[in-house]
TrEMBL record, chain B:
Major localisation: membrane
Phylogenetic placement of the source organism: Bacteria, Bacillati, Actinomycetota, Actinomycetes, Micrococcales
Superkingdom: Bacteria
The protein, known as: ABC transporter permease
Pfam families hit by this protein: BPD_transp_2 (PF02653)
Membrane-spanning ranges: 18-34, 65-95, 107-127, 133-154, 175-199, 230-256, 268-296, 302-326
Record flagged with keyword Cell inner membrane: no
Matching InterPro entries: ABC_transp_permease
Species whose genome carries this gene: Microbacterium algeriense
Length: 535, 355
């Protein structure tokens, strides 16, 4: 590692968007031959800093020095010319071109009669071989590869055009463990060739596995630069969230532990619901006043299962009963009048209607249920809107502001208000606390606990297992598109227990496939033992 | 303090989507006045007490465009487009003329002719709506079908003739006056207000905007888009029918190839001038109203200034390009960057955010 000369040095970078200071005097250095992780919560400014470096955003103040000279790039292409290549989470390659064409696009080998395709594909193969991908047929369309391999092709492309700096923005979020290992092998080989790698990920384990150095951002400010081996996890998390872990742990810790009447009819019971490619046949029961957590890794089917309950996606098989009578849910418009509400994890694309006001966003679902011919009067709207703005502490408390101008946490609260206004009996919350600050997080968790007290059944989905454990009465564990067990929550249940269940299941499945094909819950994680212990 | 209040009103006005449309109308009128200082003069016809003048002509010309423009506003707000309105005008004209030429000159016949024309254009609008909402065709393609087929339908109805009829009640819609003002303009204003009330007093407008801005999120909020899309296309069809009645009424002849020819483009322009985005979402009926007035003013000005007919489209294009540039956020952004906000203003903005 060359400590003396950073290849990228950013000093005092500030970027202001209308009304928000996205970056405030941030410093950042990147040395050749190192993997440097950029850490911070959602909204801390990681992506903004990357876009400042590549020139996608214009910086308001500060300086960027690349390879010893001050630069201001005019965009990603301009940056690429200077050797700064970016591989985004959603691969930005052309899926209908061949692998070789994608690797060499814009740098094709030319001969006397235009492009020499043979030489171009040979060069592409060489670039792929350097990263251990020599087995790929460069003439096949890129779309035939998995996302993970496409990402590796994108890295090959960056290497083929002699990148000196490689930026990987959340490259692992849609990869499974084996694919992540493959990616890391490639990253290490790229690093060993002297390339500076900037790595952004939410997964702490991965950051510790791959990075040499960590820079932490919080709320657009620089919190410090550390060598990875000298920074322990608790210190890192504290730096990212700006609070002690203990304070965070004490938030909203009131899960229900009253014994239930075993004869009570479930609010919702689903038998064998499935959807091809998303969820395998699953049985599920949800009772009034119960918070059920769905735990599992990204892509485990936790979101997909929740979407079936709301008919956001239609189930191909199985039946759903509400209050003991079967219902046919074809679309959200069928689920809402039956008092089911679903708050999506994809707030921007499936949640907010950006150009409408907070007021309109809150009343929308209620209005949709009534139909357009029976409008809510202004007074009724005001009553609903002011109630939820106050109850959920939406800031700014201005109902006539466009929702797209609110912060993520406040948008989330507005959406929560929209669903509460429909008076749901079953409220499904998919990642309601993702990408929002700690304060808003606590407020949303509190709201969930209160709802359960009032008899509402809540399905709570979060990739933060601690949060699921803190709030849920019962935890449904999913893996590889199927439910692998249920855990009754209790004092000795921790995030680690769930992780163990998920990890252990792979072993069980290998040992005893019969058990899985019948879809039965393995006895090894039977719920009752924990429940007894909880009393 | 009053100065400050004045500025805020001024700012509000500038922010209105149709502000630049009004400016353009005034500018065009000024251009006409420069050529002829008496251009704006209104006189009263001593025989019947009706207003006469260039402004009156503009209002009359604007009426059909207003009708199709507000229909187009609704369709565009859903994220679609309706290319068939010009042809539907011809269909409405053909239906009413053919009916009247047989039914003769009575008030009842006029009423029936209008009703029949609107029912048929409403049904054709429903065809568009079904193709878009239920079959799932691209709105551009779905309505292109009727744009091309509509004139054929009209031709079949009239047997290939440019049918002429006489009916004083029907003619009155287009050429009559009420308390000195053209009936056709009064009618247009009334219909715009009526549509505005229906759309804004019910939740129709909100839902149309919601599906136009974010169809996926709207579905998740329980909105059923199919019925809304169908409603928007039916309304657009009926309004095109009204426009067709207005436009054949003044000459009492339907010219299959000329009636409503290319007026769908004028309607789209009127909507854009009114500040709506072709991507769908927020719409403004008052904006479309102003846009239609501007287009009528523009057409009249081109004639009045004696711009040669070959240069007419270019003249129109220049005016519209300039207008769209003035409305463009990006162009305005360039101007804004030239004069950076003063520090005090910046501070104010920051406080707003932290509050």
């Amino acid at each position: 590692m060359n400590e003396e000369v950073p290849i990228v040095e950013m000093r005092g970078i500030s970027i202001e968007f209308p009304g928000v200071k996205a970056l405030d005097g941030v410093d950042f250095r990147l040395f050749p031959g190192e993997v440097h992780a950029l850490m911070g919560e959602n909204g801390a400014g990681k992506s903004t800093l990357i876009k400042a470096l590549t020139g996608v955003y214009r910086i308001d103040s500060g300086s960027i020095v690349v390879s010893g000279s001050e630069r201001r790039f005019g965009g990603a292409d301009d940056a690429q010319e200077a050797g700064v290549s970016t591989v985004y989470q959603e691969v930005n390659l052309a899926p209908n071109l061949s692998i070789g064409e994608n690797v060499m696009l814009g740098h094709e080998q030319r001969g006397a009669f235009g492009i020499n395709w043979t030489a171009t594909h040979r060069a592409a193969t060489e670039a792929l071989e350097r990263l251990g991908l020599g087995h790929l047929d460069t003439r096949k369309p890129l779309s035939t590869l998995s996302i993970a391999l496409q990402q590796l092709v994108a890295i090959s492309r960056a290497m083929a055009i002699r990148a000196k700096v490689l930026i990987l923005d959340e490259p692992t979020s849609s990869l499974d463990a084996a694919e992540v290992e493959g990616l890391f092998a490639v990253i290490r080989s790229v690093r060993d060739q002297g390339v500076a790698v900037l790595f952004v990920s939410h997964f702490l384990d991965q950051v510790y596995a791959i990075s040499d150095r960590i820079t932490v951002l919080r709320n657009g400010r620089y919190e410090g630069e550390h060598l990875t081996r000298e920074l322990d996890r608790h210190a890192l998390i504290s730096a990212m969230i700006g609070k002690d872990l203990d304070t965070l742990k004490s938030l909203g810790g009131n899960r229900r532990r009253e014994p239930r009447d075993p004869d009570e009819k479930p609010l919702l019971s689903a038998v064998g619901i499935a959807r091809r490619g998303a969820v395998e046949a699953t049985d599920l029961e949800i009772r009034r006043g119960e918070v059920v957590g769905f735990a599992g890794l990204l892509g485990s089917g936790r979101t997909e299962l929740a979407r079936l309950l709301y008919a956001a996606d239609k189930a191909d098989a199985g039946t759903i009963e509400l209050h003991g009578s079967p219902v046919d849910l074809r679309s959200p418009a069928d689920a809402l009048p039956r008092r089911i509400a679903f708050s999506t994890e994809n707030r921007r694309d499936e949640g907010i209607i950006g150009d409408l006001t907070v007021r309109e966003n809150i009343v929308l679902a209620v209005q949709a249920e009534r139909g357009w011919a029976r409008p809510l009067s202004r007074r009724e709207q005001d009553a609903i809107v002011s109630r939820y703005i106050e109850q959920l502490n939406v800031r700014p408390a201005d109902p006539d502001r466009m929702i797209k101008n609110l912060s993520g946490g406040n948008q989330q609260k507005v959406l929560l208000g929209r669903w509460l206004a429909t008076q749901p009996e079953l409220l499904i919350l998919d990642e309601p606390t993702r990408g929002i600050d700690v304060g808003a997080k606590a407020e949303i968790q509190e709201a969930v606990a209160e709802l359960a007290e009032d008899g509402v059944a809540v399905v709570f989905i979060s990739s933060e297992l601690e949060e699921v454990v803190r709030l849920s009465e019962r935890i449904v564990v999913l893996k590889d598109h199927r439910k692998i067990g249920e855990i009754q929550n209790g004092p000795e249940v921790t995030a680690q227990v769930i992780v163990d269940v998920i990890a252990a299941h792979g072993v069980d499945a290998a040992a005893d496939t019969l058990d899985d094909t019948e879809g039965a819950v393995p006895d090894s994680i039977a719920p009752t033992t924990h429940k007894e212990a909880a009393r | 303090m009053t100065a400050a209040a004045g500025t805020t009103i001024w700012r509000e006005l500038i922010r209105k989507p149709f502000f630049w449309g009004i400016v353009a109308i005034i500018a065009l009128l000024a251009l006409n006045v420069i050529k002829d200082p008496t251009y704006l003069a209104l006189s009263i016809n001593p025989n019947n007490g009706n207003l006469v003048g260039n402004l009156v002509d503009i209002l009359r010309q604007a009426a059909p465009v207003m009708m199709i423009a507000i229909g187009m506003s609704l369709v565009i707000a859903t994220g679609g487009i309706d290319l068939s309105v010009g042809s539907l005008m011809a269909v409405a004209g053909a239906v009413s003329m053919e009916f009247l030429s047989a039914a003769g000159d009575s008030f009842g016949a006029a009423l029936a002719a209008v009703g029949l024309a609107l029912v048929i254009t409403g049904v054709l609008g429903a065809v568009n709506g079904v193709l878009v909402a239920y079959v799932g065709l691209q709105p551009f393609i779905a309505t292109l079908v009727l744009m091309l087929a509509g004139r054929g339908i009209a031709k079949v109805i009239t047997g290939g003739q440019n049918t002429t009829a006489s009916n004083d009640s029907f003619r009155w819609i287009a050429n009559g006056f009420l308390i000195g003002i053209p009936v056709v303009f009064l009618l247009a204003v009334l219909i715009v207000i009526a549509v505005g009330l229906v759309v804004r007093r019910s939740a129709l407008g909100l839902m149309i905007e919601a599906i136009g801005i974010n169809p996926r999120a709207s579905r998740m909020a329980g909105i059923k888009p199919k019925g809304l899309l169908l409603t928007a296309y039916i309304m657009s069809g009926i309004l095109a029918g009204i426009a067709g009645v207005m436009s054949v009424g003044s000459v009492m002849t339907v010219d299959i190839s000329r009636t409503g020819y290319q007026l769908e483009l004028d309607a789209i322009l009127a909507v854009v001038i009114g500040g709506a985005s072709l991507a769908g979402g927020k719409f403004s009926l008052s904006g479309a109203f102003v846009g239609a007035l501007l287009i009528a003013t523009l057409d009249k000005t081109v004639l009045y200034l004696g711009v040669s007919s070959s240069a007419t489209p270019a003249f129109k294009a220049i005016v519209i390009v300039v207008l769209c540039l003035l409305q463009s956020e990006r162009v305005r952004g360039w101007f804004r960057r030239r004069r950076r906000p003063r520090p005090a203003e910046r501070l104010l903005q920051k406080e707003e955010v932290s509050a």
